[in-house]
Specification:
alpha/beta, Alpha/beta knot, Helicase, Ruva Protein, domain 3, seven-stranded parallel beta sheet, 12 helices, 10% strand
Amino acid sequence: MTEALNQPAGPDPASPASCDPGNIFSRVRVVLVETSHPGNVGSVARAMKTMGFGAAPGGLVLVSPREPDVLAHADAVAMASGADDVLAGARIVPDIETALAGTAFTVAMTARQREFGPPRLLPRAAAAQAHTVLAGADDAAMIAFVFGNERYGLPNEAVLRCSAVTHIPANPAYSSLNLAQAVQLITYEMRLALLDGQVPRGEAASDATPNIGYSGEPATTEQIESMFGHLQAGLAAIGFLDPANPRKLMPRLRRMFARAGLEREEVNILRGIAKRMLLTGGKPAGADAAGQVDDDIDKDIHP
């Protein structure tokens, strides 16, 4: 009876039979950081598939799981319960930077309050904003939801790399959800956001962001991280930032720019400012915070 109630009225827009390979559902990524239990990975794959996600390779990404062969582990396969294709297409990567490559908007799942961090959104608002970003980005852009270890949650460095944070406002007297339940709820909200109206690129998908007129292409995670390294080096070059005692300047800047939702052209402007600061301070124009020089920096920055 339950299965009958859950049957869709028509073809699922996320299914291969009813959409082309560029389907917007394939541009949603779930990232699991340092997952401990193989069974949880399988359960996550099942949760994703029930909401129409994970059909494309790389839809599920694992960052340094405890079990190196987790995708073939008997517990993972058993708990996937038919979502073997999601497991087969999953990737294992060594760090969060690799896991977020190619993303234009990322949401960290964490209930922990942090003094400095990305803007906090409820799941429905986070999903709506993710949809807005997908609608305005090119067809290769991805969005990602990032989940932490079952016991310890997400490390600060992973949270700081994300565009926003969210948490499930569960019963405060008993708010414990297992990993797959959390993924199920978030992907359900994302599914609703995508089905609510697949709008043409460049048009607003919801009221999640204010109407400010022209909206450019969202900056990718890699572009933003590169900009932060460049900006940090520029601030140090002019003496505004003391590398030996940076205090909380960079986390504050990260939080400020995360609220803004940077576009690619805006990142280029900021890198142009960083370039000028480096030149003023007598440093190579393309040096990042570690002192590495990008020889192609002038190709990426508007003067």
